[in-house]
């Protein structure tokens, strides 16, 4: 393919991707793909798929001399939109060289990003990326006439700016991305899934495994564009291979000659291959992405397939690896000791079960091999893993299991050689038995018919799912392949070339996956390659460990941001859409009709903040946590602490988490033993920054509706270097409404208003969650903080006004109120009325304000502020707990939580699309769409029943008895036994026609009379079934 640019005064800047004469001679259609942005919206692109002969390329120039291998998609960065194309790739090999449809694999080496709306980046769009070896992969097809290539006039001594997509170029040009060389096969799917898709797929849809399609975000609009083409055009765009679907991971292929069968003197030429497909749904680098998310996606999830092909059969064996599927992370500087924090120890089960449910749906049966050791942190994680899996077995039964194998201990006792014999021995029955039970997949090569299908998979993990995991997966792969070879040709099991190539593939696989996740090659690969442990291998592993520590701590954050940008995870990113007036109208109508496919649920949120002055629990917390005992129990309890530890130098350098655990336990005890208990609560998430801590408890009945829980911190002490002051934030989604909670401790001092204002802005601008989310990204935001804002009056005046209960005068002098009125901080936030006395500063265990030598003036330092249309303040007050020099403050909110019915939304989308497509020229589209409505099946149901009232009991039917007298008064036609032979009744030997005629003569039963008292109710029991299908649609009159 060639990439052309048309950019002159007479036409809009346009990029044109065309087939080459060589490709057309090889059977590719003579076609072109044309791109240009729409006016006024750079994130919306016009795309045309036209005959190349229809284009006038006389005024166009080659934008690059490189041959284009395909288009990866479109991405918007800032004010520019870019076309991502493959500039260089090499063929890895062919999985089935003898087949009529070859299955070639290519490895991407270079990717360029060319701007659709500006020439500012033309010079840097395909420049070598710093730090990447370019080599000479694909330069043979450069133009000999360099004047035909578009050249941007060089700027006069101006420095060349870095291309906005330079981080993406670096990742995509790292040699870890692969694609299929022909459109006939799908590299993202394993063999059995691919063959099933090939048989069942219609010509309209491209079949691929969405879990492993890494360019899904940037190619989605082009796939939608392809979907809207007619059948012939879809076939042609596929044959042109303009659109490329890429995976990340590893692909390696070797050709192996094997001994000939007795009937032939010719050797058998086989191919052995390994394809690892890295999942993208929780992608990232080692210390930035751990554990699981609420959808059950885990970090470093890889499906690895061993493929062995001959002319007679196609063998496939699949394994997966993935991070321990719990909520855990590693924050701060990590060296060679692993500091692990399980962030949601009591709230991981739903996500854990979702993960295994996804695996079972995909692979039928799963046996986990846990390689974590007995060191403190790994042991805690392993114990929690086992506990969650045992609980999940009550749901999934024997379809899931686990084997714990301490890899390091085994190596310490018997060396690496002992792992090979131990892991598959009878001592570990779960592994030994399931190797035979799960089996492998086998297809007949000539007929493509399935002979046997793998019935389950091993899910292997260590801490990083790299070195130990790769070592064990190599063993399992060979064990399965050997099992197959023993059936077809036993002598092939002793083939040194086959075993050596298998080892080499797994060693390369380990290095590739390790470089993606940790930045260096894998450890132990010297043994994987040679079967020996050497001094050179030991020194190499030591060097890699040091390099990992540096890269993971100091370079991975930038790489993580680039990964999130490529995957579309950043909150400020706009997906590029293709100009499509029909679908644009549908999307706008859907947004305007949100209430039709969503409901509003009432929620209650308790929010409390308390500066503890470093004190432990000393009194009942119930007056604070449940100030209104008879009111509805809150769905969420959000509790912020400041000075949970003494703010001394030792704590600032290394925070003690034990105090936080003590307070968490105290809250749990209060919740557990509260009088009139109606609900159970679970610790959802907690986070600590030196003395500032945030803890969230959730009612057990709503836990399944809480998703995407994340925590982060921001230091503000010593200009952002110290954590003695700062903020902790936790964000979450409750159904389809987002919440962000921030507890903070701002600068102290009566007159330090500017410092407090500065701390606020540092937090707002510098506090970020994953995927680019900020505080302002959320629907609802609540601050619960020791703001340290004081009252601008002399101490004696403050106390005198307090004695006379003149709070209004004090509120008028409140520093926080004044800076908010001046819109210096907390712009757009609200606070309840200050009807309670100042919360700072008291003599501990008394009701007296400060009587110490400093005699600090009382102030409302502890505050709760909020922003969000769905929040309604119910109560705002303080609790009379005396165990600190501050009084705790609390607020109760009513929250309107939106619940989106996705099936109903999809039904409405289809209805809108259908009616737009069928609109004639004389119809007014707006009026037509306004008349459309969905039948709400919930409105057709009777009212819900209760202990006092049941829908089937009314005045006409006391006790729910429905009597139809005419049924019993009707004279009976027959008096004898209906089974006795009777000439007037059809006999068993009667013909079908006689049976049918006799059936017509039977008297139909009378209809049951319905109550006329309530016209909206359905007939009496049994109650109407609840249809799980998308709701039906009608047109309103």
From TrEMBL:
What biological-process GO terms show up in the record?
A: phosphatidylinositol dephosphorylation; protein transport
GO terms assigned for molecular function? phosphatidylinositol-3,5-bisphosphate 5-phosphatase activity; phosphatidylinositol-4,5-bisphosphate 5-phosphatase activity
Question: Mind telling me which Gene3D superfamilies this protein's record contains?
Answer: Endonuclease/exonuclease/phosphatase
Quick one: a GO cellular component term? Answer: membrane
Taxonomic superkingdom: Eukaryota
Primary site of residence:
cytoplasm
Q: What class of enzyme is it?
A: hydrolase
Under SMART domains, the record lists:
IPPc
Residues forming the SAC domain are 168-519
Which UniProt key words apply to this protein? Answer: Cytoplasm, Hydrolase, Protein transport, Transport
Magnesium keyword on record: no
InterPro entries noted in UniProt: Endo/exonu/phosph_ase_sf (IPR036691), IP5 (IPR046985), IPPc (IPR000300), SAC_dom (IPR002013)
Q: Which Pfam families match?
A: Exo_endo_phos2 (PF22669), Syja_N (PF02383)
Q: What is this protein called?
A: phosphoinositide 5-phosphatase
């Amino acid at each position: 393919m060639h990439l052309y640019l048309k950019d002159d005064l007479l036409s809009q800047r346009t990029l044109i991707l065309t087939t080459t004469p060589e490709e057309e001679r090889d059977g590719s259609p003579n076609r072109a793909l044309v791109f240009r942005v729409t006016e006024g919206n750079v994130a919306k692109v016009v795309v045309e798929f036209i005959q190349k002969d229809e284009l006038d390329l006389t005024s166009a120039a080659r934008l690059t001399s490189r041959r284009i291998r395909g288009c990866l998609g479109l991405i918007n960065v800032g004010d520019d939109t870019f076309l991502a194309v493959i500039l260089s790739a090499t063929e890895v090999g062919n999985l089935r060289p003898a087949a009529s449809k070859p299955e070639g694999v290519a490895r991407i080496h270079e990717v360029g990003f060319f701007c659709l709306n500006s020439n500012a980046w033309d010079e840097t769009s395909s420049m070598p990326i710093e730090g990447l070896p370019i080599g000479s992969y694909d330069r043979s097809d450069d133009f000999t006439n360099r004047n035909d290539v578009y050249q941007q006039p060089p700027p006069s001594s101006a420095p060349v700016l870095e291309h906005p997509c330079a981080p993406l170029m670096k990742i995509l040009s790292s040699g870890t991305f692969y694609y299929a060389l022909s459109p006939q096969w799908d590299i993202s799917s394993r063999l059995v899934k691919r063959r099933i898709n090939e048989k069942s797929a219609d010509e309209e849809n491209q079949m691929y495994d969405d879990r492993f399609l890494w360019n899904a975000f940037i190619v989605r609009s082009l796939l939608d564009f392809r979907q809207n083409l007619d059948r012939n055009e879809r076939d042609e765009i596929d044959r042109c291979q303009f659109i490329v679907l890429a995976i990340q991971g590893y692909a390696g292929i070797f050709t192996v000659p094997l001994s000939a069968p007795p009937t032939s003197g010719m050797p058998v030429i086989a191919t052995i291959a390994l394809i690892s497909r890295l999942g993208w749904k929780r992608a990232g680098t080692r210390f930035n992405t751990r554990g699981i998310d609420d959808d059950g996606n885990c970090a470093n999830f890889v499906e690895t397939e061993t493929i062995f092909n001959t002319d007679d059969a196609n063998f496939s064996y699949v394994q997966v690896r993935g991070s321990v599927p719990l909520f855990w992370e590693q924050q701060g500087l990590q060296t060679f000791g692993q500091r692990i924090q399980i962030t949601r120890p009591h709230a991981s089960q739903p996500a854990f079960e979702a993960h295994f449910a996804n695996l079972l749906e995909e692979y039928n049966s799963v046996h986990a091999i846990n390689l974590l050791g007995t060191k403190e942190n790994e042991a805690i994680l392993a114990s929690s893993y086992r506990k969650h899996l045992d609980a999940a077995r009550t749901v999934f039964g024997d379809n899931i299991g686990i084997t714990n194998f301490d890899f390091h201990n085994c190596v310490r006792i018997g060396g690496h050689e002992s792992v090979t014999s131990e892991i598959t021995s009878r001592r570990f029955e779960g592994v030994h038995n399931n190797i035979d039970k799960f089996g492998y997949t086998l297809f007949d090569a000539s007929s493509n018919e399935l002979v046997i299908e793998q019935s389950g998979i091993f899910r292997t993990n260590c801490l990083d799912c790299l070195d130990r995991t790769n070592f064990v997966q190599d063993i399992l792969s060979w064990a399965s392949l050997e099992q197959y070879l023993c059936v077809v040709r036993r002598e092939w099991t002793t083939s040194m070339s086959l075993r050596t190539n298998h080892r080499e593939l797994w060693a390369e696989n380990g290095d590739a996956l390790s470089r993606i996740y940790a930045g260096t090659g894998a450890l132990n690969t010297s043994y994987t390659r040679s079967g020996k442990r050497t001094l050179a291998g030991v020194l190499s592993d030591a060097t890699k460990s040091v390099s990992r520590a540096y890269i993971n701590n100091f370079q991975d954050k930038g790489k993580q941001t680039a990964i999130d940008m490529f995957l579309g995870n950043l909150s400020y990113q706009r997906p590029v859409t293709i100009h499509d007036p029909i679908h644009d109208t549908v999307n706008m109508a859907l947004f305007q009709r949100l209430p039709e496919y969503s409901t509003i649920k009432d929620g209650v949120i308790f929010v409390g903040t308390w500066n503890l002055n470093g004190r432990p629990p000393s009194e009942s917390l119930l007056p604070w946590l449940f100030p209104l005992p008879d009111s509805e129990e809150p769905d969420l309890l959000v509790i912020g602490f400041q000075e949970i530890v003494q703010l001394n130098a030792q704590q600032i350098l290394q925070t003690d988490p034990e105090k936080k655990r003590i307070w968490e336990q105290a809250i749990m005890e209060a919740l557990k033993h509260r009088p009139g208990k109606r609900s159970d609560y679970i610790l959802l998430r907690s986070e600590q920054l030196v003395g500032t801590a945030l803890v969230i408890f959730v009612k057990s009945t709503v836990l399944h509706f809480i998703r995407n829980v994340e925590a982060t911190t921001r230091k503000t002490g010593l200009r952002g270097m110290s954590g003695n002051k700062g903020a902790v934030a936790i964000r979450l989604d409750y159904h389809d409404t987002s919440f962000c909670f921030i507890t903070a401790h701002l600068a102290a001092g009566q007159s330090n208003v500017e410092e407090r204002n500065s701390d606020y802005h540092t937090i707002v601008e510098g506090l970020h969650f994953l995927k680019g989310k900020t505080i302002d990204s959320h629907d609802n935001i609540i601050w619960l903080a020791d703001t340290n804002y004081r009252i601008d009056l002399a101490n004696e005046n403050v106390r005198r006004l307090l004695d006379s209960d003149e709070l209004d005068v004090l509120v008028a002098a409140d520093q926080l109120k004044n800076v908010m009125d001046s819109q210096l901080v907390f712009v757009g936030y609200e606070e309840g009325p200050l009807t309670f006395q100042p919360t700072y500063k008291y003599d501990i265990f008394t009701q007296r304000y400060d009587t110490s030598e400093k005699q600090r003036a009382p102030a409302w330092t502890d505050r709760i502020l909020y922003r969000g249309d769905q929040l309604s303040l119910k109560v705002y007050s303080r609790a009379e707990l005396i165990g600190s020099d501050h009084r705790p403050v609390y607020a109760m909110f009513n929250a309107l939580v939106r619940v989106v019915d996705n099936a109903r939304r999809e039904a409405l989308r289809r209805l809108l699309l259908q009616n737009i497509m069928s609109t004639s020229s004389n119809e007014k589209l707006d009026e037509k769409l306004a008349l459309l409505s969905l039948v709400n099946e919930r409105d057709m149901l009777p009212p819900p029943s209760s202990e006092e009232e049941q829908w089937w009991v009314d005045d006409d039917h006391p006790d729910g008895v429905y009597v139809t007298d005419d049924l019993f008064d009707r004279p009976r036609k027959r008096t004898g036994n209906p089974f006795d032979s009777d000439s007037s009744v059809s006999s068993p030997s009667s013909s079908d026609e006689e049976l049918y005629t006799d059936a017509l003569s039977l008297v139909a039963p009378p209809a049951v009379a319905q109550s006329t008292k309530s016209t909206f109710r359905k007939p009496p029991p049994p109650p109407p079934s609840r249809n799980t299908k998308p709701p039906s649609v009608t047109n309103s009159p």
